[in-house]
Amino acid sequence: MRILSRAEELIMLSIWKLKNNAYCVPILQEAQEHTGKVWTLSGIHIPLGRLEKKGFTESYFGESSAERGGKRKRFYKITPAGFKALKEVKEVERSMWEGLAELADLPIEKLTGEQK
Amino acid sequence: MKRPPRFGLWLMNSFMPEHIGKSGVGDYEEMFCHIAENNGKIRADLWFWGQVIRVLPVYFYESVFWKFVMASNYLKTAFRNMRKQKVFSFINISGLAAGMACFILIMLWVDHELSFNKFHENGENIYRVLKDDIHSPESAHIYGKLGPAIKEEIPEIIEMGRFIWRYVPLVKYNSGKKDAAEKSFYEREFYLFDPSIFDIFTFPFLKGDPKTALKNGIVITETMALKYFGQEDPMGKILNFDNEHNVPVTGVIRDIPNNSHIRFGMLSLLEDHQNLINWGNPILETYILLNEKTDLKDTERKIKECYFRHNPDAKSFLRSFRLQPLKDIYLNAGIEGWYTARGNIWHIHIFFSTALLILFIGCVNFMNMNTARSTSRAREVGLRKVLGANRSQLVKQFLGESFLSVFISFAISLVFVILFLPAFNNFVNKNLVLDLTNTRLLAGLSAVMLITGILAGFYPSFYMSRFKPVKVLKGLFFPKNRSGPFNVRKALVIIQFSISLILIICTVVITGQLNFLKNTNLGFDKKNIIYMNTNSHIEKKYETVKAELLKNSDITGVTIKDIQPQYLVWNTNIVWEGRKSREPLQWELTAVGYDYIDLMGLDLLEGRNFSREISSDKKNAFIVNEEAVKEMGLSSPIGKAITVEDWKKGVIIGVVKNARFKSMKSMIKPLFLYLWNKDFKVATADVILVKIRDKKFNSATAHINDIWSKFSPDYPFRYSFLKEDYENLYRSEKYINTIIIFFTSLAVILSCLGLFGLATFTAEQRTKEIGIRKVLGASVFRIAVILSGDFTKWVVFANLIAWPAAWYITDKWLQNFAYHIDVGIWIFLLSGSLALFLAILTVSWQAVRSASANPVDSLKYE
User: Fold this and answer.
1) Angle between helix B374-386 and helix B439-464 axes, rounded to 10 deg
2) Which of A13, B35, B176, B214 has the fewest CB atoms within 10 Å, i.e. the most exposed one?
3) Which residue did the predictor score with more confidence, B571 or B520?
4) What SS3 state is found at B672?
């Protein structure tokens, strides 16, 4: 099983956070809010597609609205396999950051100095 | 509600990948609305387009890429399949190619026929005047004075023009230069025109003024100018007519295109010949240019009224006048008139139907073969479905394969067309071209390809895409039962054979009718007779010339007639003794020499021939035919007095048996013969007829040439064969016959080919069954019978459909002829047996082959 990419992980976390309102537009807003970078819809659609293929997420259709030109909303939720993948990522991060987590708060000059 | 830019939205919708789907587009729309609300429409639009630009290239490429991958797979499969079953593919493609080639050739011809007279600018408003009276069928020969009268009295008629074919003059040009020979020709395309014709029709003048040219001289066409004057300017040069008149050339007209029903070479002014313009003799063609919004029926009525105003007596025989639109003239050339080219709407019907039928048979073959072969592809279909193909994808695949075959056939058919076009042109006497730059033609060809592809491909595609994977992959797949009452394959074969049968029957009938026409005893002897146009010198010394000619033992008869033998143009008004009413009739009258009846071999039934001994014969004798006696209702015609119009009186001295001088399409009319008299000539197109002893042609013509040059040295000796002229009457019927024979054979071959393919395939299907039967003791013959039994039943059934249809069609066609054969039952039996024989031959060859197979091999399949 390969590890989730950054984008995939962030998207899955947004889905988790949004609970019943997890469709593409709020997911994008969440991601933008938390990362501070600009995300595009296609940057959401394509990873979501991959996630579905891998079976980490499931989707179901919701109501349509005039705003959306009559098209229905597609809501996502995480599957057990998805949760497993997320946990795995969390574990990898924890183990990778072991011994480094405390240092993350120091200013950058101190960090570069330390390495010598 | 603000919506994103329509075009951008459409792009999004079209290229969004499937796994994102419409919902994804909805996401974009939602965001668009948010931005529009917060930052205004313009920023929203910009954002949307930005998204489109960012996203589209990738999505587009992906969709195209995959489509391309799929397409190349389909292509590979298609070619592999074709290679695996070479024989079937060959039959399929060549059958279709042949059908398409025929179709294209015929459509080129039909297109040309339909294009006649379209080049005239005022074409929509040009009409020809036709008259209908109780004595003759509708005719375009009109009284000369009618034209000017209706132009004056009917305001809706903007312009009026008349013309007539004059005769065959001898035209000479002597340039006066020392080393230039004199050019002299007998011109057969010499017409008399009203100058107003050029205001109606589009015959552009290259030199000279259309309004005045005819009044001052002769107008000729480009080719004529080239013929007489070479590269020199023809204007003003003098042409000599009949060694008598010298006339200058005052105009040159561009050559008349092929698709015109009248084509002329030289023109002179009609008004110069007042003897042709009167109220009594209908001989001119009259055309009018009508105001656009005119009511046709109204004008026709006015024309009739105008005619009656000038001819109150005519009310008893003239029924009506009709205005025939220009576009209807060529195809209805059965109506009497001065045509150069005659078309026939029937020919178009026949050819077009035949072309369609052949194409149809080709398509049916294709369909049948493909569905029959379907079991060999069943596993492929099953596998594809397992791998995720849905029905519509499979349909697209198979349809694509059909289109591929059709396209290949199409390419081959174009090659056929190019190869056969010269021969075809030669045959139908036209100059057709496959002009690939003509957009209409391209559109037509593409339509043919498209329709054929869909027609031939849709049924097999739908049939094959229906297979259920489980059944197929388990080997439980069997083709639909062959013995059901309703079976598409069976229906297709029956249709094919019905069509072929109809074609065979029609061919037999047409050939029969043509033979009938050729061989019917016309009632006179046309062998060994030649005729030539006379001239003033010959006519002045006719008796001497005749005596001189007869001195040669190879010449057995000489006589004279006022116009070519097959023309009996002088319809005129005849009154006889004991006639009750005074209404004028339109019967046939012609002046002939003393020996005419003997030379032509006519049968004298009553009375006597013209006699030199009886001097009163010269002015007073009439010989009539049986039909005349019948129409006049005279029980003892000899001695009865006859008055012709106002210029001849006489008595009947003899009655001849009916002879057919015109084509079989018209009924025999009453005929009056009187003696030709050089002092009293009504016509000027006289011909001398000479009968030559069998096989002595060359010596006889040499002798005639001598005498001719002696008496009329400045008139070259030219002659025509009577027999040829009569054979030419049916020329178009002859080539139709050949074409129909060719196409029928093609259709039959295609049908048999299809049957062959089907039989081969079914035999393959039943190898096991055959093996078992053989093991159980069946003979080769018995097995062959079993295998072919089904097919022969179908062919017999096809007869039931074909016979009534063929009877109806041939009956209608034969009605065209006043005299025709009867369609007997033997024709149907013969055609049916022929078809059955061919079918059995085709099928049994295959049946015997598989029946003779070694059962060991076939049963080894387990």
Assistant:
1) 80
2) B176
3) B520
4) strand
Q: Which two tokens stand for residue B519?
A: 């061989």
Closest chain B residue to A39, measured at CA: B51
Residue of chain B whose alpha carbon sits nearest to that of A71? B26
Q: Is the pLDDT of residue B124 over 80?
A: yes
For residue A102, the 8-state DSSP code is G
Q: B19 contacts in A (CB within 8 Å)?
A: 49, 52-53
Residue with tokens 């010598």: A116
Chain A residues close to B55, C-beta within 8 Å: 40, 42
> Pairing mode, if any, of strands B238-241 and B245-253?
antiparallel
Q: Taking each helix axis from N to C terminus, what angle separates B345-372 and B439-464, rounded to the nearest 10 degrees?
A: 30
DSSP label of B567 = -
**What one-character-per-residue DSSP string does B262-279 give?**
---SEEEEGGG-GGG-SS
| pLDDT band at residue A12 under the 50/70/90 scheme | very high
CB-based contact B29 A68, cutoff 8 Å: yes
Q: Smallest CA–CA separation between B9 and chain A, in Å?
A: 10
pLDDT of residue B685: 62
Of A40, A68, A72, the CB nearest to B54: A40
B588-592 and B671-675 as β-strands: parallel, antiparallel, unpaired?
parallel
Give the Å distances, CA to CA, from B275 to B143, B145, B189, B682, B782.
12, 11, 21, 10, 84
In eight-state DSSP terms, residue B529 is: E
For residue B683, the model assigns a pLDDT of 58
**B13/A80 Cα distance (integer angstroms):** 33
Mean pLDDT over B367-378 rounds to 77
Structure tokens at A96: 């990778």
So what's the pLDDT on residue B693?
85
Please check whether residue B365 is in contact with residue B754, taking contact to mean a CB–CB distance below 8 angstroms: yes
Residue A114 has what pLDDT? Answer: 61
pLDDT, tens only, B813-854: 888 777 788 888 888 888 888 888 888 888 888 777 777 777
Whether residue B379 contacts residue B387, with contact meaning beta carbons closer than 8 Å, is answered with: no
Q: What is the pLDDT of residues B439-474, one digit of tens each?
A: 777 888 888 888 888 888 888 888 778 877 777 776
3-state secondary structure string, B88-132? HHHHHHHHHHHHHHHHHHHHHHHHHHHCCCCCCCCHHHEEEEEEE
Residue B681 scores a pLDDT above 70: no
What residue of B is the nearest CA neighbor of A51?
B19
